[in-house]
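hiii so um. not sure if this is the right channel but i have a protein structure encoded as tokens and i wanna go backwards to a sequence. like what aa goes where. can anyone help
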């Protein structure tokens, strides 16, 4: 993409003398796509987690099939727009998800038109208590785990090696995925479902998230790597 079509993002970097210097990152079309897909996948996974399905004989919240890809998308965002902008993206995704949950809660409180005839079904699916708990647990899990993912990813690139981009994803996700899984499974379903079911959800989610991590690792190569000598 040409420089004329790039939107500059301001930040700071350390120059060779160790002093802070201005840093400009180009917001390319690919970065815009990654940001949009990241937030969209987070929202979709939050609301599809309202359904507990049975896959391969184990209980699983259905958002699990979408959510794990956000870890790799976060890694792509990190190398595209930088660490600090990625941290802002994580917080903004949490705020958007919270607003969506509050809006649906308000919609559920509005009486349904009798001609529509689906008010009871809507309330059953978007139960405010269950929706609020799942979304809040999901938001806490997302923020904590993906901020951890950001730090591990940045540490790996700046302290270990800038080569082997797939290894960045694997290492950072190997730390952040179990953290996310534990916070979400216990926070969303602990005390609501039998602990045996919570355990099944945790186990299935963990295995599936690692599988999606392996499948989605090639996404890290959809954009060119940044100049990591300009450390934020």
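sure thing!! here u go:
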């Amino acid at each position: 993409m040409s420089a004329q079509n790039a939107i500059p993002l301001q930040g700071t970097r350390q120059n060779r003398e160790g002093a802070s210097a201005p840093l400009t990152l180009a917001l390319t079309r690919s970065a815009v796509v990654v940001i949009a897909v990241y937030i969209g996948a987070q929202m979709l996974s939050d609301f599809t987690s309202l359904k507990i399905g049975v896959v391969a004989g184990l209980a699983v919240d259905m958002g699990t099939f979408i959510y794990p890809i956000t870890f790799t998308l976060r890694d792509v965002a990190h190398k595209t727009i930088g660490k600090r902008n990625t941290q802002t993206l994580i917080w903004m995704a949490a705020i958007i998800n919270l607003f969506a949950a509050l809006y649906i809660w308000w919609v559920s409180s509005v009486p349904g038109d009798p001609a529509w005839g689906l008010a009871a079904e809507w309330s059953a699916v978007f139960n405010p208590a269950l929706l609020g708990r799942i979304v809040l647990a999901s938001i806490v899990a997302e923020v904590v785990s993906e901020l951890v993912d950001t730090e591990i990813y940045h540490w790996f690139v700046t302290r270990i090696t800038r080569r082997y981009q797939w290894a960045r994803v694997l290492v950072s996700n190997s730390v952040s995925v179990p953290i996310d899984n534990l916070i979400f499974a216990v926070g969303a379903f602990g005390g609501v479902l039998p602990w045996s079911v919570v355990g099944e959800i945790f186990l299935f989610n963990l295995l599936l998230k690692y599988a999606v991590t392996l499948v989605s690792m090639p996404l890290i190569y959809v954009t060119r790597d940044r100049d990591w000598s300009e450390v934020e």
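oh and Strands lie at 7-14, 20-27, 52-55, 58-61.
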